[in-house]
Amino acid sequence: MTSQGTWIDHFPGNFMWSNATLVTKGMAPYGAVALGEIDQVCERLRQRQGEPHAWWEEWGAMGARLEKAAEAAEAEGRRFTAGNYYLRAGMYYFTAERFVYPGEQKREIGRRALDLQTKGLLRRYPNIEKVEVPYEGATLPALFLKAPGASGRAPAVVLFDGMDNCKEMSVLFAGLEFAARGWHTLAIDGPGQGESLRLRGLYSRHDYEVPGAAAYEYVAKRPEVDPKRVAVMGYSFGGYYAPRVAAFEERYAACVCLGALHWDLAGWQLEVQRKQQANPANTAQSAFHFRWIMGHLDDADAAIEKAKKFSLVDVAGRIACPFLVVHGQDDRVCPVDSAHKLYAAVGSRKKTIKIFTAEGGAAEHCQVDNRQMGIDYIADWLAPVFKAA
């Protein structure tokens, strides 16, 4: 790495780019990206911060380079090597797509990213299965990761993404650890997430117990899964989705919130808009991303109005299952006070809050600076819950 900036803030003064880069760096422990490749891209971007198309051009160029390497390896019969290249190429395309305005170009980059990530995952992890979860007359795309050492009916975790992520990421950073402990994982792109948003036009909804119930019913019918030992987990924006699911879908044995979403979603977005008007580089999101997810790309007021329904104020008290909220003290996307508010409001008598600090590590948003620490804590917490269920 270069001496300019820090590992956390690769582009000092540009939180938007730094945060997106950190999310990508966070996938390095799982072989989904390479820090040297990221550094090459970022060194070129450092000279182009004033150019509107630089972000997707540079990340896309790296993705295209690795895609060609993957195809060459595949043609020569080096399937596992091809899988590594496909996976990294897909991840860089997914990063490239982040700040592209919704339209045909964004859709095509997103399609390519998801396709390449899937090719990589299926070649590297034969215990991952691409599945479709029945949902309101259609389906939701998901990845089911079988725990290789599990016998009989084993526990499972239903895992919903955040605002800027996809199932192809979470199946790695969480699913691999859960599999090592003998638990299956259903990493799913719910409405407003990943493939469901990008390729199927499914926008977010406040009543996430509907896709949550669909996910439970799918995993509960699988012969590998113990229906009495299924947990629901969400991270970042999923920090709203998972508690909402647990509050209304009582068949889940536990709920994990990796990063509590803002207590007042509409108020948070109004503040984000204010910051974007002053200096877009000071926010983690693009100006359009939230509107896109809400299904109101061209109407900011309508997006805010819809966001008012996304509240746990009158919902968290309904949660009765064992509950865990994990948060970073230095989270600059969702302030840590949201975690404390959520913990206080949850009705469960078996609830835990874990705040990671800078001294101990993993203090950034959803522990992206050291994701393994966050997932280890979650898995250690889930183990006795599953045992008791």
What is the gist of this entry?
By secondary structure, the chain is of the alpha/beta class.
Structure in words:
The protein is α/β, with parallel strands linked by helices and 389 residues long. The chain has 2 domains: 1-124, acylaminoacyl peptidase (de novo design (two linked rop proteins)); 125-263 and 311-388, Rossmann fold (3-Layer(aba) Sandwich). The protein is 47% helix and 14% strand. The chain contains 15 helices and 8 strands. The protein has helices at residues 15-25, 35-46, 54-75, 79-97, 104-124, 167-173, 175-180, 194-198, 209-220, 238-248, 265-278, 289-294, 300-307, 337-345, 371-388; strands at residues 128-135, 138-145, 154-160, 184-188, 225-235, 254-258, 323-328, 351-356. It has an 8-stranded mixed beta sheet, with helices on both faces. A hairpin with a 2-residue loop joins strand 1 (128-135) and strand 2.
